[in-house]
Design a protein that fits this description.
Elements: E1 2-4, E2 7-12, E3 23-30, E4 34-42, H1 51-65, H2 69-77
Length: 88
């Protein structure tokens, strides 16, 4: 579900927990380019994010999606960001 341009709320299933035991994540996403995890929460602990959290997510998404690859490499190198790789 798109919250704002570039900001999406996605459900992540947890094996054996069902829909009520799942997690929600807020991500900044630009098709075929970049995805940034902003934050996550347990669906059974919190039903939705607040308006203030939506505003912060929008600000973070705009900033993070504007980074060049060189800026991202630097931020990863100095430990301000970390990269997650999917391995089968």
């Amino acid at each position: 579900m798109q919250i704002w341009e570039g900001v999406y709320k996605k459900r992540i299933a947890i094996k054996g927990k069902g829909k009520c035991g799942s997690m929600r994540t807020i991500v900044a996403y630009k098709a075929k380019d970049k995805v940034f995890f902003i934050f996550g929460y347990a669906k059974n602990k919190k039903s939705n994010i607040t308006l203030e959290e939506k505003k912060v997510a929008k600000i973070l998404a705009k900033e993070m999606l504007s980074y060049s690859y060189e800026e991202l490499e630097y931020l990863i190198k100095v430990g301000s960001l970390f990269e997650v790789h999917y391995e089968k």
